[in-house]
TrEMBL record:
Its cofactor is Zn(2+). Belongs to the sirtuin family. Class III subfamily. CDD domains: SIRT5_Af1_CobB (cd01412). It is found in: Cytoplasm. It comes from Micromonospora echinofusca. Keywords: Cytoplasm, Metal-binding, NAD, Transferase, Zinc. This is NAD-dependent protein deacylase.
């Protein structure tokens, strides 16, 4: 409601250091399925918990690589939504703004957000399975080469150009630790911000889910945008029940329009 929106807008407009923490829900209105939403959740459809693991890749690299090619193709067809663009405006308007995302799509970047912190890696950063993990370079698949997983879109992963080992998706799988540098930067930003805006995350997967809790413990104002209740509700100061593409543009307008012009 508008009282809550203006309360959130005031905190955001007055903030010096803002962190925007996003999950799959920010990309839902771009047509990229979330992980745990009932009807559209990725896990429900493809039992992804089986696919997004080192064991699955070892057992059947072509199936797992095919699934990630299918996800990459879906993201390529998607476009950033007004929620992504509002986040770019927030980062540009706040004296200091940082985006921390659990998403592996590149929609924040394509909406003009510079250098978002990817806690779970990226679909567009495959790497070699060798310990060195040198970034893998290889040609993109020809258009149309990626078939829906339902048709068993098995695609053999490419070989690393440096050492001929298999190339793997550059995402963090179930059971794997998060990239150290990304997690450290995210925790540092959360511990020193005035406002943390959490959008489109169920807040159930650790250690990513620690980020908003660290901000709250450090005294930051936590604002949440999510159509559903989440376990982050108890640490949230202003809970905006709604979707990213609806709420975020209104929040930005209320936060910065009031100081412009009048
Ligand atoms: P997990 O339970 O295996 O834990 C992952 C890491 O978080 C481990 O290092 C664990 O020690 C640490 N951890 C667990 N609970 C914690 C807590 N309360 N506080 C601090 N650290 C904690 O996590 P998971 O569900 O198996 O998934 C591993 C990671 O992979 C998660 O971050 C998940 O989001 C990510 N993942 C990514 C994809 C993808 O396709 N992008 C798919 C599945 C999972
Ligand atoms: N606007 C805002 N929030 C939305 C929207 C929307 N249009 N649509 C759905 N949501 C909310 C849902 O209510 C839910 O709380 O987004 C959240 C999506 O939660 P998940 O599917 O669990 O996605 P996420 O929180 O990003 O999952 C965390 O777990 O599976 C791993 O690595 C994977 O990064 C993922 C992590």
């Amino acid at each position: 409601d508008s009282v809550l929106l203006h309360q959130a807008a005031r905190s955001l407009g007055d903030a010096h250091r803002v962190v925007v923490f996003t999950g799959a829900g920010i990309s839902a209105e771009s047509g990229v399925p979330t992980f745990r939403d009932d009807l559209t959740g990725l896990w429900a459809r493809f039992d992804a918990a089986q696919l997004a693991t080192p064991e699955a890749f070892h057992a059947d690299p072509d199936l797992v690589w095919g699934w990630y090619e299918w996800r990459r193709a879906r993201v390529r067809r998607a476009t950033p939504n007004p929620g992504h663009r509002a986040i770019t405006t927030i980062v540009d308007r706040a004296p200091a703004g940082t985006v921390v995302t659990q998403n592996v799509d590149d929609l924040h970047e394509r909406a003009g957000t510079r250098a978002p912190i990817h806690l779970h890696g990226s679909l567009f950063a495959p790497r070699c399975v060798a310990a060195a993990g040198h970034p893998a370079t290889f040609p993109d698949l020809p258009e149309g080469a990626v078939t829906e997983l339902a048709e068993g879109g098995r695609i053999p992963p490419p070989r690393c150009v440096s050492c001929a080992a298999l190339v793997r998706p550059g995402v963090v799988w179930f059971g794997e630790a998060l990239p150290e540098a990304a997690l450290t930067a995210a925790v540092e930003a959360a511990a020193t911000c005035d406002v943390l805006l959490t959008v489109g995350t169920s807040g159930v997967v650790y250690p990513a889910a620690e980020v908003p809790r660290i901000a709250a413990r450090a005294g930051a104002t936590v604002i949440q945008v999510n159509p559903e209740p989440t376990p982050l509700d108890p640490v949230t100061a202003v809970n905006l029940r709604g979707t990213a593409a609806q709420v975020l543009p209104a929040l930005v307008a209320a936060a910065w329009e009031r100081t412009d012009g009048n």
